[in-house]
Amino acid sequence: MPLYGVDSNVRPMISNFRHELRKIVQAQDDIEATAISYPLAEKLKNEPDAIDAVPIILELMEQHPTFDFGVPGPLVHFVERFYQHGYEDMLCVSFTRRPALHTVMMMHRLINGSTGEMKRKYIEILGTALSRPEIEQVVRNCADHYYRYHTQKT
Fold first, then answer.
1. How many of the other CB atoms lie within 10 Å of CB of 66?
2. What angle do CA 103, 18, 80 make, to 5 degrees?
3. CA–CA separation, 76 vs 33, rounded Å?
4. Among candidates 113, 132, 133, which has minimal Cα distance to 123?
5. All structural domains of the chain with their residue ranges
6. Global confidence as pTM
7. What is the mean pLDDT of each run of 10 residues along the chain (154 residues)?
8. Cβ–Cβ contacts within 10 Å for residue 64, how many?
9. Number of Cβ atoms within 10 Å of the Cβ of 145
């Protein structure tokens, strides 16, 4: 069963979307991956249940933690459209399960837009990646960079 309980039989758009996402990580190079990502993100914007694609995108990032999805890329821009509409919790769940380079960057961006207790919560979640040996070193290094940035700043 897919993560987050999204039933792809009920939502055909989601089933097709999973297939299209796989094409991104199978691309031969960054140019091809970007050429697939932009129209896919644009198409999703018009879907009434577009927020259902957010956990699937995060799941893909977990499965390919060092893949270059862009800086930040069309998928991140799409996901961040749901800021203050549930995206934050989805990111925290994904990050806790399996940080990736892009989710580290997304957590940093989320921290930048937060204040008070929520900012402290997101910084704490970011810091959890530092002591997880199963996480790729490059992901931990990136998390460490942003964690130090935010903890020295606050």
1. 13
2. 35
3. 14
4. 113
5. 3-153
6. 0.87
7. 43 74 90 91 87 94 94 93 95 97 97 96 97 96 98 78
8. 17
9. 12
